[in-house]
Design brief:
single chain, alpha/beta, seven-stranded mixed beta sheet, binds S-adenosylmethionine
Length: 254
Protein backbone atom coordinates (compact mmCIF):
# COMPACT_ATOMS: atom_id res chain seq x y z
CA UNK A 1 0.00 0.00 0.00
CA UNK A 2 1.43 3.40 -0.95
CA UNK A 3 0.97 6.77 0.76
CA UNK A 4 -1.65 7.58 -1.84
CA UNK A 5 -3.80 4.65 -0.74
CA UNK A 6 -3.25 5.22 2.97
CA UNK A 7 -4.28 8.85 2.99
CA UNK A 8 -7.63 8.03 1.43
CA UNK A 9 -8.40 5.92 4.45
CA UNK A 10 -7.53 8.72 6.86
CA UNK A 11 -10.50 10.65 8.20
CA UNK A 12 -10.39 14.16 9.64
CA UNK A 13 -9.08 17.54 8.55
CA UNK A 14 -6.37 17.43 5.93
CA UNK A 15 -4.07 20.19 4.71
CA UNK A 16 -4.25 21.56 1.23
CA UNK A 17 -6.55 23.13 -1.32
CA UNK A 18 -9.21 21.22 -3.27
CA UNK A 19 -7.49 18.49 -5.25
CA UNK A 20 -7.01 18.99 -8.96
CA UNK A 21 -5.59 16.61 -11.59
CA UNK A 22 -2.33 18.57 -11.49
CA UNK A 23 -1.90 18.54 -7.71
CA UNK A 24 -3.77 15.51 -6.38
CA UNK A 25 -0.77 13.22 -6.19
CA UNK A 26 1.55 15.73 -4.51
CA UNK A 27 -1.01 16.81 -1.94
CA UNK A 28 -1.95 13.21 -1.21
CA UNK A 29 1.68 12.37 -0.41
CA UNK A 30 2.13 15.53 1.67
CA UNK A 31 -1.11 14.98 3.53
CA UNK A 32 -0.02 11.47 4.48
CA UNK A 33 3.18 12.88 5.96
CA UNK A 34 1.29 15.60 7.84
CA UNK A 35 -1.17 13.03 9.17
CA UNK A 36 1.76 10.92 10.33
CA UNK A 37 2.93 13.91 12.37
CA UNK A 38 -0.57 14.65 13.68
CA UNK A 39 -0.79 17.65 15.94
CA UNK A 40 2.73 18.91 15.36
CA UNK A 41 3.28 22.37 13.90
CA UNK A 42 6.03 21.60 11.44
CA UNK A 43 8.90 23.77 10.25
CA UNK A 44 8.67 23.75 6.47
CA UNK A 45 11.14 25.09 3.92
CA UNK A 46 9.87 25.64 0.36
CA UNK A 47 12.76 26.24 -2.05
CA UNK A 48 11.60 28.02 -5.18
CA UNK A 49 8.18 28.15 -3.60
CA UNK A 50 7.11 31.01 -5.86
CA UNK A 51 3.77 32.59 -5.09
CA UNK A 52 2.92 30.13 -2.33
CA UNK A 53 0.72 27.51 -3.98
CA UNK A 54 1.97 25.02 -1.41
CA UNK A 55 3.31 27.35 1.29
CA UNK A 56 0.03 29.15 2.01
CA UNK A 57 -2.15 26.02 2.40
CA UNK A 58 0.54 24.51 4.65
CA UNK A 59 0.53 27.67 6.77
CA UNK A 60 -3.27 27.52 6.88
CA UNK A 61 -2.91 24.02 8.31
CA UNK A 62 -0.83 25.49 11.15
CA UNK A 63 2.73 24.95 9.93
CA UNK A 64 5.51 27.55 9.79
CA UNK A 65 6.78 27.95 6.24
CA UNK A 66 9.87 29.70 4.92
CA UNK A 67 9.87 30.27 1.17
CA UNK A 68 13.22 30.88 -0.50
CA UNK A 69 12.82 32.16 -4.04
CA UNK A 70 14.93 34.11 -6.50
CA UNK A 71 12.04 36.26 -7.72
CA UNK A 72 11.05 39.39 -5.74
CA UNK A 73 7.79 39.54 -7.70
CA UNK A 74 6.88 35.98 -6.74
CA UNK A 75 7.70 36.71 -3.11
CA UNK A 76 5.57 39.87 -3.16
CA UNK A 77 2.65 37.81 -4.47
CA UNK A 78 3.32 35.20 -1.81
CA UNK A 79 3.27 37.82 0.93
CA UNK A 80 -0.05 39.24 -0.34
CA UNK A 81 -1.56 35.78 -0.63
CA UNK A 82 -0.46 34.84 2.89
CA UNK A 83 -1.94 38.08 4.28
CA UNK A 84 -5.23 37.51 2.46
CA UNK A 85 -5.36 33.99 3.89
CA UNK A 86 -4.71 35.34 7.39
CA UNK A 87 -1.46 33.40 7.84
CA UNK A 88 1.14 36.15 7.30
CA UNK A 89 2.73 35.44 10.67
CA UNK A 90 3.45 31.83 9.68
CA UNK A 91 4.96 32.54 6.25
CA UNK A 92 8.47 33.98 5.87
CA UNK A 93 9.66 35.11 2.44
CA UNK A 94 13.40 35.03 1.78
CA UNK A 95 14.83 36.25 -1.49
CA UNK A 96 17.74 34.08 -2.49
CA UNK A 97 19.24 31.78 -5.03
CA UNK A 98 18.64 28.08 -4.58
CA UNK A 99 22.23 27.54 -5.55
CA UNK A 100 23.25 29.46 -2.42
CA UNK A 101 20.75 27.70 -0.19
CA UNK A 102 23.38 26.39 2.18
CA UNK A 103 24.06 29.94 3.38
CA UNK A 104 20.39 30.87 3.71
CA UNK A 105 18.91 28.21 5.98
CA UNK A 106 19.87 26.79 9.31
CA UNK A 107 21.18 23.23 9.03
CA UNK A 108 19.08 20.50 10.61
CA UNK A 109 16.12 22.81 11.22
CA UNK A 110 13.35 21.68 8.84
CA UNK A 111 10.79 18.91 9.32
CA UNK A 112 9.72 19.10 5.70
CA UNK A 113 11.47 20.56 2.67
CA UNK A 114 9.71 21.21 -0.63
CA UNK A 115 11.61 21.71 -3.87
CA UNK A 116 9.07 21.68 -6.69
CA UNK A 117 9.93 22.48 -10.31
CA UNK A 118 13.26 24.07 -9.41
CA UNK A 119 16.03 21.52 -9.98
CA UNK A 120 15.42 21.87 -13.73
CA UNK A 121 16.58 25.49 -13.70
CA UNK A 122 19.32 25.88 -11.07
CA UNK A 123 23.05 25.88 -11.90
CA UNK A 124 24.00 22.93 -9.73
CA UNK A 125 21.16 20.54 -8.78
CA UNK A 126 23.46 18.27 -6.78
CA UNK A 127 24.53 21.20 -4.59
CA UNK A 128 20.90 22.29 -4.12
CA UNK A 129 19.84 18.79 -3.10
CA UNK A 130 22.80 18.56 -0.70
CA UNK A 131 21.65 21.84 0.86
CA UNK A 132 18.05 20.56 1.07
CA UNK A 133 19.28 17.45 2.85
CA UNK A 134 21.41 19.52 5.22
CA UNK A 135 18.43 21.75 6.06
CA UNK A 136 16.41 18.73 7.22
CA UNK A 137 16.54 17.47 10.75
CA UNK A 138 17.15 13.69 11.02
CA UNK A 139 13.84 12.01 10.19
CA UNK A 140 12.66 15.02 8.20
CA UNK A 141 11.21 14.56 4.72
CA UNK A 142 11.84 16.06 1.30
CA UNK A 143 9.21 16.52 -1.40
CA UNK A 144 10.95 16.97 -4.73
CA UNK A 145 9.18 17.53 -8.04
CA UNK A 146 11.09 17.41 -11.31
CA UNK A 147 10.20 17.54 -15.00
CA UNK A 148 9.87 14.13 -16.63
CA UNK A 149 11.99 13.45 -19.66
CA UNK A 150 9.79 10.83 -21.37
CA UNK A 151 6.71 13.06 -21.33
CA UNK A 152 8.66 15.88 -22.94
CA UNK A 153 9.80 13.62 -25.78
CA UNK A 154 6.25 12.33 -26.34
CA UNK A 155 4.76 15.80 -26.13
CA UNK A 156 7.11 17.27 -28.72
CA UNK A 157 6.59 14.31 -31.06
CA UNK A 158 2.79 14.42 -30.77
CA UNK A 159 2.86 18.12 -31.63
CA UNK A 160 4.78 17.29 -34.80
CA UNK A 161 8.20 18.51 -33.61
CA UNK A 162 10.03 15.29 -34.35
CA UNK A 163 13.44 16.95 -34.54
CA UNK A 164 13.00 18.45 -31.08
CA UNK A 165 11.75 15.11 -29.74
CA UNK A 166 14.82 13.38 -31.17
CA UNK A 167 17.15 15.99 -29.62
CA UNK A 168 15.44 15.63 -26.25
CA UNK A 169 15.66 11.85 -26.36
CA UNK A 170 19.34 11.92 -27.29
CA UNK A 171 20.53 14.61 -24.90
CA UNK A 172 21.92 13.16 -21.63
CA UNK A 173 20.43 16.08 -19.67
CA UNK A 174 17.05 15.72 -21.38
CA UNK A 175 16.94 19.15 -22.99
CA UNK A 176 16.28 20.19 -26.55
CA UNK A 177 19.21 22.58 -26.79
CA UNK A 178 19.86 26.22 -26.05
CA UNK A 179 16.28 27.37 -26.75
CA UNK A 180 14.79 24.95 -24.25
CA UNK A 181 13.31 26.70 -21.21
CA UNK A 182 14.58 23.93 -18.91
CA UNK A 183 18.20 22.99 -18.39
CA UNK A 184 17.47 19.38 -17.62
CA UNK A 185 14.75 16.75 -17.20
CA UNK A 186 14.78 13.49 -15.32
CA UNK A 187 13.75 9.89 -15.43
CA UNK A 188 12.94 8.23 -12.13
CA UNK A 189 16.29 6.48 -11.72
CA UNK A 190 18.33 9.59 -12.35
CA UNK A 191 16.22 11.71 -10.00
CA UNK A 192 16.40 9.06 -7.28
CA UNK A 193 20.18 8.82 -7.69
CA UNK A 194 20.47 12.59 -7.27
CA UNK A 195 18.66 12.45 -3.93
CA UNK A 196 20.49 9.33 -2.78
CA UNK A 197 23.84 10.99 -3.48
CA UNK A 198 22.88 13.62 -0.89
CA UNK A 199 22.16 10.92 1.71
CA UNK A 200 18.37 11.00 1.36
CA UNK A 201 16.42 7.74 1.37
CA UNK A 202 13.81 7.78 -1.40
CA UNK A 203 10.61 6.25 -0.06
CA UNK A 204 8.21 6.78 -2.94
CA UNK A 205 8.17 8.01 -6.51
CA UNK A 206 4.97 9.02 -8.26
CA UNK A 207 4.08 10.35 -11.66
CA UNK A 208 2.31 13.72 -11.64
CA UNK A 209 0.12 14.69 -14.64
CA UNK A 210 0.22 11.30 -16.32
CA UNK A 211 -2.81 12.24 -18.41
CA UNK A 212 -3.70 15.82 -17.48
CA UNK A 213 -1.60 17.41 -20.23
CA UNK A 214 -2.55 14.89 -22.91
CA UNK A 215 -6.32 15.07 -22.82
CA UNK A 216 -8.42 17.48 -24.86
CA UNK A 217 -9.55 20.38 -22.65
CA UNK A 218 -13.18 19.36 -23.14
CA UNK A 219 -12.49 15.99 -21.50
CA UNK A 220 -10.25 17.34 -18.73
CA UNK A 221 -12.60 20.21 -17.89
CA UNK A 222 -15.73 18.12 -18.36
CA UNK A 223 -14.79 15.25 -16.06
CA UNK A 224 -12.44 16.72 -13.42
CA UNK A 225 -13.36 14.29 -10.65
CA UNK A 226 -12.83 11.26 -12.88
CA UNK A 227 -9.47 12.64 -13.99
CA UNK A 228 -8.38 13.25 -10.38
CA UNK A 229 -9.15 9.60 -9.61
CA UNK A 230 -7.37 8.36 -12.72
CA UNK A 231 -4.27 10.44 -11.98
CA UNK A 232 -4.24 9.00 -8.48
CA UNK A 233 -4.73 5.45 -9.73
CA UNK A 234 -1.94 5.60 -12.31
CA UNK A 235 0.63 7.63 -10.35
CA UNK A 236 2.57 4.75 -8.83
CA UNK A 237 2.10 2.16 -11.55
CA UNK A 238 4.32 1.15 -14.45
CA UNK A 239 4.41 2.18 -17.22
CA UNK A 240 2.27 5.27 -16.56
CA UNK A 241 4.37 6.72 -13.74
CA UNK A 242 7.36 7.09 -16.00
CA UNK A 243 5.37 8.83 -18.74
CA UNK A 244 4.15 11.60 -16.43
CA UNK A 245 4.93 15.25 -17.10
CA UNK A 246 6.55 15.44 -13.66
CA UNK A 247 8.03 12.99 -11.20
CA UNK A 248 7.43 13.44 -7.49
CA UNK A 249 10.00 11.94 -5.14
CA UNK A 250 9.37 11.68 -1.43
CA UNK A 251 12.55 11.08 0.53
CA UNK A 252 13.72 11.16 4.09
CA UNK A 253 16.91 12.11 5.90
CA UNK A 254 17.90 9.09 8.01
C1 LIG B 1 8.09 26.75 -11.98
S1 LIG B 1 8.12 27.79 -10.58
C2 LIG B 1 7.61 26.64 -9.31
C3 LIG B 1 6.96 27.34 -8.16
C4 LIG B 1 6.49 26.39 -7.05
N1 LIG B 1 7.58 25.61 -6.49
C5 LIG B 1 5.40 25.49 -7.55
O1 LIG B 1 5.62 24.29 -7.74
O2 LIG B 1 4.28 25.99 -7.77
C6 LIG B 1 9.85 27.92 -10.28
C7 LIG B 1 10.17 28.87 -9.15
O3 LIG B 1 11.55 28.76 -8.88
C8 LIG B 1 12.09 30.06 -8.73
N2 LIG B 1 13.50 29.97 -9.10
C9 LIG B 1 14.02 29.83 -10.33
N3 LIG B 1 15.35 29.74 -10.27
C10 LIG B 1 15.66 29.81 -8.94
C11 LIG B 1 16.87 29.79 -8.23
N4 LIG B 1 18.05 29.66 -8.84
N5 LIG B 1 16.81 29.91 -6.88
C12 LIG B 1 15.63 30.05 -6.24
N6 LIG B 1 14.46 30.07 -6.86
C13 LIG B 1 14.48 29.96 -8.20
C14 LIG B 1 11.26 30.94 -9.64
O4 LIG B 1 11.32 32.30 -9.22
C15 LIG B 1 9.89 30.33 -9.46
O5 LIG B 1 9.19 30.91 -8.40
Amino acid sequence: MTRLDRVEQTPGRLAGPPLTPRTVVIWSVLRAELERRTGAALTVLDVGGGTGGFAVPLAQAGHRVTVVDASPDALAALTRRAAEAGVAERVRAVQGDGDALAGLVEPGSADLVLCHAVLEVVDDPAAVVAALAAALRPGGAASVLVAGRAAAVLGRAMNGHLDVAAALAADPAGTAGSRDTLRRRYDADRAAALLAAAGLVVEEIHGVRVLADLLPAAVADGQPAALVELERALAARAPWRDLAAQLHLFARRP
